[in-house]
Amino acid sequence: MGAGHLGKIHLRLLGESPRYELVGFYDPDLVRGKQVSEEFGIRYFDNMGELIDAVDMVDIVTPTLSHYDCASRAIREGRHVFIEKPVTHTYEEAQELMELVEARGVKAQVGHVERFNPAFTAVADAIDSPMFIETHRLAEFNPRGTDVPVVLDLMIHDIDIILSVVRSPVRDIRASGVSVISKSPDIANARIAFENGCVANLTASRISLKNMRKSRFFQRDAYISVDFLERKVEVVKMKDAPSSPGEFDMILQNAEGEKKQIYFENPEIRANNAILDELETFATAIETGGDPVVSLKDGARALDVALRVIRAFDEPARVEPS
């Protein structure tokens, strides 16, 4: 469902994928629907109900406000659903969808596409118990998407990535947001503290002069940098220095006299189409009965934290007494 900018990308990829038989699509905009139908040579359904009746899986690429209505109708009819991020408009709606999925025994996946970015997948297994994370997601201004805060438009990508590698409950959130062009914040910064001591500092902007999508993970004896835009990684690790270092070995010595050797790893980054990968892994989950890579629970948790960040905009900053 949905034939906007991203919806058309999904239609093209579903049509090309051998894992799916593309039956057709629905969009409430009749003019756009007819145009896209002619462009792709696929059937345009006159209403949502007819589309749901004709398929096994529904791909929901509509405005966020309509996600719950589209998904709940499809799930009640026993259809599997793929839902673009954010999963729903409210956390309560996401909870209801989880209950519906459980009751109807269908599969659901949320479109947090950065999980499939080849730079991230190349190092995901190496990110182990990070204790400090810093992310920057900056974009040049584009009117599309400015009807929602930058947290739900951009920052939620990094929130999902962080929650996937920090396996600990969120303890505290502090945030600030500034509206520059839009009626909702265009620039935001959030500090998320977890119960295990990890701290994540996130910055997002949609009025930057250049695009940037970088995350840095700091953990014991390792620093890992992921460039989601350029699809590059840096992995710097430390280990106990050998008793007889080589001429070109990089050795550090701390105040206690302990010596560490610095070395670099270069994981292989395999080119892919991340949107196609997320759609095809969902097909695998449906066919095998396995768990989707990004579950409804994952999408709901990312939405919950994103909404808490937005609420934190209005909370006064706490100052510790001297």
TrEMBL record:
<dbReference type="GO" id="GO:0000166">
    <property type="term" value="F:nucleotide binding"/>
</dbReference>
<dbReference type="Pfam" id="PF01408">
    <property type="entry name" value="GFO_IDH_MocA"/>
</dbReference>
<feature type="domain" description="GFO/IDH/MocA-like oxidoreductase">
    <location>
        <begin position="150"/>
        <end position="210"/>
    </location>
</feature>
<dbReference type="InterPro" id="IPR051450">
    <property type="entry name" value="Gfo/Idh/MocA_Oxidoreductases"/>
</dbReference>
<dbReference type="InterPro" id="IPR055170">
    <property type="entry name" value="GFO_IDH_MocA-like_dom"/>
</dbReference>
<feature type="domain" description="Gfo/Idh/MocA-like oxidoreductase N-terminal">
    <location>
        <begin position="2"/>
        <end position="112"/>
    </location>
</feature>
<protein>
    <submittedName>
        <fullName>Oxidoreductase, Gfo/Idh/MocA family protein</fullName>
    </submittedName>
</protein>
<dbReference type="InterPro" id="IPR000683">
    <property type="entry name" value="Gfo/Idh/MocA-like_OxRdtase_N"/>
</dbReference>
<dbReference type="Pfam" id="PF22725">
    <property type="entry name" value="GFO_IDH_MocA_C3"/>
</dbReference>
<dbReference type="InterPro" id="IPR036291">
    <property type="entry name" value="NAD(P)-bd_dom_sf"/>
</dbReference>
